[in-house]
Amino acid sequence: MGAAVRCCILPRFGLASTLEVPGGDFFAFTPHVFMSLRIHNTLSRGLEIFQPLVPGQVRMYVCGMTVYDLCHLGHARSMVAFDVVQRWLKASGYRVTYVRNITDIDDKIIRRAQENRETIGSLTDRMVDALHQDADALGIERPTHEPRATAFVPHMLGIISKLEQRGLAYRSCDGDVNFAVRGFEGYGKLSGKSVDELRAGERVAVADGKNDPLDFVLWKAAKPAEPDEAKWDSPYGLGRPGWHIECSAMGCELLGESFDIHGGGADLQFPHHENEIAQSEGAHGKPLARYWMHNGFVRVDNEKMSKSLGNFFTIREVLEKFDARITAAL
Q1: Is the distance from CB of 237 to CB of 158 less than 8 angstroms?
Q2: 86-137 pLDDT, tens per residue?
Q3: Beta strands, E only, 14-81
Q4: pTM of this structure
Q5: Residue 256, helix vs strand vs coil
Q6: Greatest CA separation found in the chain?
Q7: Contact 128, 90 (CB under 8 A)
Q8: In what order do the strands lie in the sheet containing 57-66?
Q9: Contact 81, 295 (CB under 8 A)
Q10: What range defines the domain where residue 217 resides?
Q11: Domain count, the chain
Q12: 55, 86, 87, 256, 327 from 93: Cα distances, Å
């Protein structure tokens, strides 16, 4: 056989990963023979040879969509990118457990349901169905598990309880439960910044009752105007989970307290993934994920495509004008 062929197949999706095929043609590999895979690990900020925690098995968690509206091209990029990753791993002989979550409780979901005069369940069910239609149209395989956050509230409360016992969570005067960022020694290791350099991100609102502006909410106290379906009983009173704790609970419950790959869009690196690391490792005392992978943005006029900026195109709008294979390759 000839020299190893190094193939970078993911840059179009924003994934800085290098795949090395031992000898021969890129397309003519033998199935079920583990191949050398190097991943750009956001945590170490360098290329690393992929070595799963359990030989022959890969457990991968990717942050999915918040289902209050139709998916846009930015969502498509993330879904396609990690679909390529899990397909490659399977073709390389690994047994892959791939989890991509659905956030089905959130401030935006509550607000949109109220605007539409429909229940939260009705809205999120419609949007999940639309997500599946869009993903199917792009030829994206379904993940092994697609958990909804609302099914894992007891698991979230269990993590919060552990954090409170370890002095990493505290109850605020407004009824929320917050994570004490400065109590977690490793905070900032994913973003590569010290605590003093970091600032609150898009969903980390600085609010009354926090001991530090960087502290983030684990449990939100219920508000009178919110519907009953957005409220759960807890030791802290009626309320609902914060956004970050949702992924910690779903990932650890379905894949274990430590797993191989955690992925998502580059915009999730801070604060969402940084906060996931803090609360998961703070509760369990072990690394959450060995490798962190982040896909790049779809940009419009040199700005990230996002619903908040209003510069987005839905997947189905694009598919009305372009072939699905072309759209998936963007």
Answers
A1: no
A2: 999 999 999 999 999 999 999 999 999 999 999 999 999 999 999 999 999 9
A3: 18-21, 36-41, 46-49, 57-66
A4: 0.85
A5: coil
A6: 70
A7: no
A8: 95-103, 57-66, 259-265, 289-295
A9: yes
A10: 5-328
A11: 1
A12: 11, 11, 10, 21, 28
* CA–CA distance, 99 with 148 (Å, rounded to integer): 11
Q: CA-CA distance, 87 to 187, in Å (whole number)?
A: 33
- Output the domain CATH number for residue 232: 3.40.50.620
User: Which neighbouring-strand residues pair with 41?
Assistant: 46
Pairing of strands 57-66, 239-241: unpaired
Using one digit for the tens of pLDDT, what is the confidence trace for 183-242? Answer: 999 999 999 988 887 754 434 445 568 999 999 999 999 999 999 999 999 999 999 999
Q: Yes or no: say if 178 and 217 are a contact pair by the CB < 8 Å rule.
A: yes
H or E element in which residue 155 lies: helix 153-165
Q: In sequence order, what are the residues at sequence separation of 6 or more whose Cβ sits closer than 8 angstroms to the Cβ of residue 114?
A: 227
Q: What are the tokens at 213?
A: 């502006």
Calpha distance 55→53 (Å, rounded): 6
298-302 long-range CB contacts below 8 Å, 24 or more apart? 298/73, 298/74, 298/76, 298/77, 298/330
φ, ψ (nearest 5 deg) of residue 298 = -85, 125
